[in-house]
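Structure ticket #2291
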Amino acid sequence: MSLLQTIESGRNQKPRRVMLYGVHGIGKSTFGAMAPQPVFIQTEDGLGNLDAARFPLAESFDDVMAAVMALYSEAHDFQTVVVDSADWLEQLIWKEVIRRRPTTDRGRDITSIEDYGFAKGYTYALEPWREVLDGLNALRNERGMMVILIAHAKIERFENPETDAYDRYSPRLNKHASALIQEWCDEVLFATYKVHTKQTEEGFDKTRTRGIGTGDRIIRTTELPAHMAKNRMSLPEEMPLDFRVYAEHLGQTA
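Resolution: structure written out below.
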């Protein structure tokens, strides 16, 4: 067979790789629990009130990889794997880096990811991160599982070369790991509360702007100055924080 004969056309629909990050307590884990036949790989102890299948709390990088391997090699009916959360997984990855590289090049003992100096530790951490993503890719490509990564949000200073620097929400991850995961994911979704602003007159030609929350929990799907996000499906810029609504755009039902 010639190389030209291997060319494929048309859409190749595969399960999605999603990172959902957002403010504390907004319902990110509930979103994952609404996915088809989910199972959680939990790296933080926060699923006690959620009725969902889950592995025992992972206390090491090896525990996480063992769960991924079990889903890959053993028979099961799960259709979605939810990692909750990516930022607590990062803590386990940093410990794994120290286990693999317990001393510096000069023989000094390592006790913190910062001890390597010059951000080397965070670069070393990309290796185990890639191992996790490779394992999740295998679940997606060979076991047909959707992948959802849950993460908390942080406010970071963003240096935009076209404007003055400004603050924005982003996943609470080291910037190198965050860039790797964002590139890997099909969707990066930001969960937040819908807020309106109202200006009131305070006299002496002064106005005051107040934020008024509606209580509505929403997902932002595209990048704006206030937050990082992306999607590859031309999703609406804003959707309810509800997996069933997201699934409608996949042509699926939860």
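Closing remark: The chain has a mean pLDDT of 89.
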